[in-house]
Request: fold
Amino acid sequence: MFGSDTTAVHAGRAGLGPLGVHALPIDLSTTAPLPSVHDGGAAYEQMATGGVPLPGQSTVYQRLWNPTVARFEEGLAAMERAPEAVAFATGMAALSAVLLASVAAGKPHVVAVRPLYGGSDHLLASALLGTRVTFAEPGGVRAALRPDTGLVIAETPANPDLRLLDIAELVRQSDGVPVLVDNTFASPVLQQPLTLGASLVLHSATKFIGGHGDAMGGVVATDAGWASRLRQVRAVTGGLLTPWPAYLLHRGLATLPVRVRAAQENANKIAAALSGHELVTRVLYPGLPECDPLGLVGSQMAGPGSLLSFELRSAEHAERVPAAVGLITHAVSLGGVDSLIQHPAGLTHRPVAAEAKPNAAMLRVSVGLEDADDILNDLVQAIESTR
Ligand SMILES: *Cc1c(COP(=O)(O)O)cnc(C)c1O
Reply:
């Protein structure tokens, strides 16, 4: 078996030689020639019920299967050490498919550990897909389980306060109920939740995996049984990843390890510098000992990552910072080559219920690949402009 950097560069690239190409091929076909009504129908049946086409079989229609998307799925599955992966149009489409599969299996109840990404929190709290949620503290998961609980959902590091959670302990508490870990913030470079007992790993591939702020996607890495059910939901409901973003996301995998490590090095420096700043009341970053009481960085997680949050004296002070940055862009999203700042309570976590809203004095920074000093200088001048 190759190392993970080699896997990132090469996974999903099998069979290019016979095609006579070196770059990943993009197949944009929305439909595919059918050899006969009988064989086409059999292929359709196979894919609409969660299967993949057999070698040489017609792929019938892009909503059922696409080879460019399948290559990305193979690459991502290898990085997550998963048997399979199923890709979707967005992270939210991926989460929706998991929830629908769980509801269809007669298990509509979800135990979720807050904080979660605001959109995920909103989807669960709204019950729009027929799920019923109980929000639990990390230590209260077992007590929240019911006979109809189909999923336990958590993020680590969590969006937006970077709280870390012990995945193996969460799996123990879940008593055999499948655990879904949103691994968007860590990326498979820093953490592979399936190796710790999770059943499903979800990514907003829009973030680190694409890495350049120009492609949306979502993906779930999991076992063959879940993958089949998720492909069926995807084929029937249509939240699929399309070939062009799939190509960009797959290309992003090759540089993911170097991008994650370089951004992390910057974030480490910035977190340390902000911790000593008189106007910053608190820095939330997994690399700071006070933010990792369980010692998960270095064991569960290979490193602290490149997302950090910090708090100022008041919400009014915090709200003035995004308007004052220059190099950094005031924008939601994260995990790209350039640094972004946003106010979680006002933006990404706006739909979250009042009792679970992030601190309004908090800002979240996605540290990019610029020179650490340039990012830091811009942040510090923006913070000091609120004085
Ligand atoms: C952005 C994000 C999502 C949602 O992904 P989209 O691609 O925007 O649909 C889910 N989870 C986390 C942690 C995110 O940051």
